[in-house]
Design a protein that fits this description.
By secondary structure, the chain is an alpha/beta fold. The protein folds into 2 domains: 16-25 and 185-251, no CATH class; 27-182 and 253-284, Rossmann fold, CATH 3.40.50.150. It has helices at 16-30, 35-48, 68-79, 96-104, 124-129, 154-165, 257-262; strands spanning 7-10, 57-62, 87-93, 114-118, 138-141, 172-178, 198-201, 208-220, 223-234, 240-251, 268-274, 278-284. InterPro entries: Methyltransf_12 (IPR013217), SAM-dependent_MTases_sf (IPR029063).
């Protein structure tokens, strides 16, 4: 398939090539496996609120991307021969190319129980408005995702939206902050800025390589800016299939900042749980 060459400012989610590249580099940059943590959390919460076909246990994975966390739950279920009976799973993202891939690679016990929904973390009420079962038992905003809410007031808007869709009393939201997104007063923020051109082999498209170049980064207040050029290249004839000027900004966090912000919203902070590479902040609501 021939794709027109494009030269544009972009994120990492706006084309099939970018989604493929993201899925290759994201696990190596995060070096995490949080699926086991979420699987145990799911089992514990489901035991507290028995579910039925008419009142299923609802999982919402916000910023699901290509379903990394949900497919991790699927792998854990397969290992113990479990299924998702009486469970409804929602993978929510505002990048359709991500959702398209997530659906394509769902082949295990999750299939038939998951809906991949194009929606915003800032309007979860709209996501749930047409659902038969409008309350969420386990809401996941996994490693680093909340850092994408970089505009003023967005984290508070998200937490208020969580309070609208979370099941009162028993529902819990797990919002994670990656250690690499914490502000350190005594040392500089690290930037991934390799010199020259880096090539990465595609996993989805035969004969395609991704060429990264011109990395640069900056920190202004609590916002980290990352920019680089990324080309999708046919390695056989060196045709440039797609060219993107990647530009992203990510919020950086003080260690207690999310807890302080939550006090202004409709959720209640329950606890923080330290992981190997992240901190899970747990919230519920009584409203």
């Amino acid at each position: 398939m021939t794709v027109s060459t494009q030269d544009r400012p972009n994120d990492l989610y706006s084309s099939p090539y970018l989604v493929d590249y993201y899925d290759i580099v994201a696990p190596s940059s995060q070096s995490v496996d949080d699926a086991s943590f979420y699987w145990k959390t799911y089992q514990d919460l489901k035991a507290l609120r028995p579910s039925t076909p008419d009142d299923p246990f609802v999982i919402m994975d916000v910023g699901t991307g290509t379903g990394r966390v949900l497919h991790g739950l699927e792998r854990n279920a397969t290992e113990v021969n479990a299924d998702f009976s009486n469970t409804e799973v929602l993978g929510v993202d505002n990048a359709q190319h991500m959702l398209d891939k997530a659906k394509k690679i769902t082949t295990g016990p999750l299939k038939g129980h998951v809906s991949w929904i194009n929606g915003s973390a800032l309007d979860l009420e709209a996501v749930m408005r047409e659902r038969v079962h409008p309350k969420v038992d386990l809401l996941i905003f996994s490693i680093g995702s909340i850092s994408h809410l970089s505009e003023y007031g967005q984290p508070e808007t998200f937490l208020n939206q969580v309070s609208k869709v979370l099941r009162p009393g028993t529902g819990q939201a797990y919002v994670s902050i990656y250690d690499g997104s914490l502000l350190h007063k005594k040392k500089d923020i690290a930037f991934h800025q390799p010199q020259g051109v880096t090539e990465i082999q595609s996993k989805m498209f035969p004969h395609v390589v991704y060429r990264e170049s011109n990395h640069r980064g900056d920190l202004e207040g609590n916002i980290k800016y990352v920019k680089f050029d990324l080309e999708a290249v046919n390695n056989e004839d060196q045709t440039i299939l797609e060219k993107n000027n990647i530009s992203m900004k990510m919020r950086q966090w003080e260690e207690d900042e999310l807890v302080s912000l939550s006090a202004k919203t409709g959720v209640t902070f329950v606890e923080r749980i330290r992981g190997a590479h992240e901190t899970f902040y747990v919230f519920n609501t009584t409203a």
